[in-house]
Amino acid sequence: MQNSLGSGDVLVRLEKLCKSFDDEPILKDINLEIKDKQFVTLLGPSGCGKTTILRLIGGFEKPTSGHVLFNNKVVDDIPPHERAVNTVFQKYALFPHLNVFDNVAFGLSLKKVPKKEIAEKVRKMLALVDLKGYEKRPVSKLSGGQQQRVAIARALINMPRLLLLDEPLGALDLKLRKDMQLELKNIQKQSNITFLYVTHDQEEALTMSDIIVVMKSGTIQQIGTPQDIYNEPANAFVADFIGEANILDGKMFKDYEVNVCDHTFPCVDPRPNGRKHVDVVIRPEDISLVQPDSGFLDGVVESCLFKGVHYDTTVNVNGYIWVISSTSPATVGERVGISVTPDNIHIMRKLYPSNINTVETEVTDAYDSSFEIEINSKTYVLDNTGRGFDKGDRIRIAVNPFDISVVGDFECDFMGYLDSIIWKANHYEYIVETDERRFLIKRDIDEQVATDIGIRLNLEKAEISLISRASEETEDEK
Could you tell me if 355 and 315 are in contact, meaning their C-beta atoms sit under 8 angstroms apart? Predict the structure, then answer.
């Protein structure tokens, strides 16, 4: 199934695209359609595979499996210079010994285009990027924003069907970066060329894009318009990555009602796939501060910071920290009520399966008071009192997310990759990938995402249940 949005002809199609480096998967089964004349942004943290997609489309890399199609034609083996694609990198790679005119004209000169035609095209292109009159200026005398526009003009002058932009604003200061966001959007609209833009900056994506593709760990998390991505995030990762959000654990015992912070509230969403455990996102600007006992929750103001057009206020509700954007200040220490309308409570599916932190294994030895199991080549001795497990019994072990510790290399049961961290109002939620399985960890301390960490399971507190008796299997064999 292809992931796409919007109307128009499909210019680029990625089909089951995978890419690995040294047997390490970077892209995992990517399916994506890019429509003609759109501004499409690949958005995600460092290492999620954004630039790899760009390089595969540009022809600088070949897929490990799957295909890149351009106008319904597979282009996996077509070299970069034969594709109707140009690329603008963060480092603009301008020729320092050439002036603005000669830099922009370089590609046409290589193609032996007549000088009169080159002059006319360069003139039009410099007008498009607002550099008319800069023809004879050395590129070394230009500002960062001007150099970037020269690089864009050089890429556009050959009139590619697709322009790839790999974080081209990353080297600019904040004010210039904001100005260039609008410039780029205007250039794309005027040139009528499809732009595929890579960034980790959420504001850039929201400002410029027709379509945003949110990525994480080599996979697509959501595709949508900026409004869809912000207002209807597909999961907690998207909600956390795009703007400020209050993300909380919720329970839905029936459709259109959700329990958050031990209170049940009406909402407009049914249970996703009938699941009881959900993630709930409420944007700070969708929460109102009201008088105590007149909202749906009461709390105490912990901080109130003036941000120019609004106040960022944090309210402690029985240990849960809520962030509220308000036009009115609040006093630290005062008791307030918070109010949210049902249509501003957004329900999302969990990022992980319901059986996460569950291990099935076999009892390797058993006594009246204890039994032994082996997990990941490690032997554990657990209490057998009241359980009566025998050697060969199959058991299921479920570990509470709060009963998994982050420890040093020499103390750990598993080494894993910290795939994501999300703040859930009163704790951090980690997703850790190991060689064999995924773990969900809840703790009070933050860690650096995309690093290797050691984890230790507290099996003494785990829920352990019997799957089947060894004696029953023996009877079946008979």
Answer: no
Q: How open is the CA angle 293-294-300, to the nearest 5 degrees?
A: 55
Distances from the Cα of 198 to the Cα of 32, 204, 292, angstroms: 15, 10, 46
Given pLDDT bands bounded at 50, 70 and 90, which one contains residue 211? Answer: very high
Burial 143-172 (b: 16+ CB within 10 A, else e): eebbbbbbbbbbbbbeebbbbbbbbbbeeb
d(CA 282, CA 57): 37
The residue assigned the tokens 């945003």 is: 212
pTM attached to this predicted model? 0.86
Nearest CA-CA partner of 70 in 59, 61, 28, 52: 59
Closest CA to 168 of 159, 154, 158: 154
Q: Considering Cα of 400, then 401, then 403, then 409, what sign does the dihedral take?
A: positive
Q: Who's near 451: CB < 8 A, 6+ residues apart?
A: 417, 418
Distance CA 331, CA 351 (A): 37
The CA-to-CA distance between both ends of the chain, in Å, stands at: 47
Task: Report the C-alpha gap between 155 and 162 in whole angstroms.
Answer: 10
The dihedral formed by the CA atoms of 264, 266, 267 and 268, expressed in degrees to the nearest 10? 150
Each residue of 156-169: pLDDT tens digit? Answer: 888 889 999 988 88
Identify the DSSP state of 138. B
CA nearest to 429, candidates 278, 200, 249? 249
Q: What is the pLDDT of residues 326-371, one digit of tens each?
A: 999 999 999 999 999 999 999 999 988 878 999 899 999 999 999 9
Indicate if the pLDDT at residue 4 is higher than 80: no
